[in-house]
Amino acid sequence: MEFYHLRSFVVVAETKNLTQAAKRLCSTPPAISAHIKTLEQELDTALFVRSTKGMTLTEKGQLLLIKAQKTLDSAVDMVNLAADNQDELIGHFSLGLNQSIQALKGAEFIDNISENCPGISLQLQQSSTGKIMTEIQTGQMDGGYIYGEIPDGFTAIEIKQENITTIAPKNFASEKIITQLDLAQSMWITMEQYCPFDKVLKQKLGTSIQSKVQSAHDQSRLELVKNGLGLSFIELAVAEKEQLTGDIQIIPQLSFQMPLSFVVLTKRLNDPIVKALIQEINILWEAPL
Amino acid sequence: MEFYHLRSFVVVAETKNLTQAAKRLCSTPPAISAHIKTLEQELDTALFVRSTKGMTLTEKGQLLLIKAQKTLDSAVDMVNLAADNQDELIGHFSLGLNQSIQALKGAEFIDNISENCPGISLQLQQSSTGKIMTEIQTGQMDGGYIYGEIPDGFTAIEIKQENITTIAPKNFASEKIITQLDLAQSMWITMEQYCPFDKVLKQKLGTSIQSKVQSAHDQSRLELVKNGLGLSFIELAVAEKEQLTGDIQIIPQLSFQMPLSFVVLTKRLNDPIVKALIQEINILWEAPL
DNA sequence: CGAGGCGTTCAGAAATGATGAATTTAATTT
DNA sequence: AAATTAAATTCATCATTTCTGAACGCCTCG
């Protein structure tokens, strides 16, 4: 049994699909299949049930998965310790941004990193809260900015409370008083499938919102609202600027604050690169250590 | 980095000697050397300082060794879990005996094992407390019987308190009253370098005992005492039987009790084979679970 | 100063793992 | 009912890694 067996085991368990797992591991299905098979023989235990839909863990597989993850974590821990106190950090960090680069001080951040951690190469990736979370969880991304609550397994640094407001097309209910029911029954342009604003609105409107169009891109949502396709959310400052041009209206009843946080996987807190990045994030947003 | 790198790392750290490590790993020095080298490159850290005497850990190596051991333990944990609740246990157990097979109910034990755990093959190894402890620690032996205190890292089942007495040649101080000083200054035939009886005697006689001959074998010590080479310890029952033949005398002033225990490595308590063996030991000595 | 340990280097040999095409299976679609 | 799709697996071949045994260099010890 070697580490690559465990890695394959864990990834196949996550993806429930050998083909995808092979892709994620930069390998091919036959190779990963052989890993699993070898592991099963060595442990003398069936880890997965195969079907044409994919591979799902057996009960014993679920138990063993936890142990396998612990073992891999332990190995990562060792590698991290080795990298600690090394003269220069060398590595790569993929950072997810759920807002514009300007809003998240991207340029300043890059400057700081290349100044303080010249060995770390940085990749900024424009994305959305939901995608950022899943990509961090699968290891495709190392950290990022997200809105809303912090899921289990993540560690967060709260950057600020963002003022969010609702915007509507200029002519939306222009002649009557806008009721909560109006808002609840309207069509919304949400940000993504699992939108952190959704929960807030459920609390406020007592119902889930209906949405047929999603866009994680601020400017796109703004454009869609302008074209009368529905309501959406946007940062207050942006909304106010746009209101001046006169194509939208702000619905102040539905304003709220939403925490913006920088998050990484808790299990990676010992990674020296993650440590360094967290320090830089703290510097960037002027929060004390 | 794979498991075999860590295994080599740990064993070399233990033996401080690449050649011995290679033997213990059933491999060759160049192979193990390459493992260490690869690991050092991958971790970008010197793990050992090489000298003509052998290999000793660097400071960082000492830190990393702990992590490496944890990782390997974690993997063993997983394998153990996999083997748990398996229909039939299959494996091998090397058992160290510090007394005669009869005294430790060897035959009955073998019977029980082959009855209750037919998949486990057993190897009995006549040895001494000290050797058994070191061999268990290095993994060459899986468990065994020892006298005296239980060292760190071991888990023990106390079997009984053995009555030990001192025997002397027939003509030893036959005409005078034997004083403690006489005993302390006499030549002793001890059992081994690190003799568990030594401590007891230190307490009783207030000094360490001098010994030029060691033998872990009861009958050999008996023979040497008979030939007037010095004093020694032996189980009371054996001594009394021998006294009848008239070649030795018992020195009842120096009798004491010594715990006899079955021990295994604590870290191996989760090993299903170890679990099974412990159960059998409990049955053998009629101790409740 | 020579013998014996010890770790390392090196070239060839052996073992292992990866790959891509073909196969199998079963669910889904036409 | 047939065709299609998506999934895992098998297999022969290829590429890579790893192991081995001999030779080497270094140091210590008698």
Topology:
Two copies of one chain form a homodimer.
Chain A: H1 3-15, H2 18-24, H3 29-43, E1 48-50, E2 55-57, H4 59-83, E3 91-97, H5 106-116, E4 120-126, H6 129-137, E5 143-147, E6 154-169, H7 180-185, E7 187-190, H8 196-205, E8 210-214, H9 218-226, E9 231-235, H10 236-245, E10 248-265, H11 272-284
Parallel strand pairs in A: 3-4, 3-5, 7-8, 7-9
Antiparallel strand pairs in A: 1-2, 5-10, 6-9, 6-10
Helix pairs in contact in A: 1-2, 1-3, 1-4, 2-3, 5-11
The structure holds a DNA duplex (30 and 30 nucleotides).
Shape of chain A: globular
Rounded mean pLDDT of chain A is: 89
What is the percent of helical residues of chain A? 40-55%
Structural class of chain A: alpha/beta
Q: What is the CATH top level name of the largest domain in chain A?
A: Alpha Beta
Which protein chains are joined by the largest interface, and how many residues does each one contribute? A-B, 24 and 24 residues
Low-confidence stretches of chain A: none
CATH architecture group name of the largest domain in chain A: 3-Layer(aba) Sandwich
Rg measurement of chain A, Å: 23 Å
Tell me the number of strands of chain A: 10
CATH topology title of the largest domain in chain A? D-Maltodextrin-Binding Protein, domain 2
Percentage of residues in strands of chain A: 25-35%
Count of alpha/pi helices of chain A: 11
Strand order of the largest sheet of chain A: 4-3-5-10-6-9-7-8
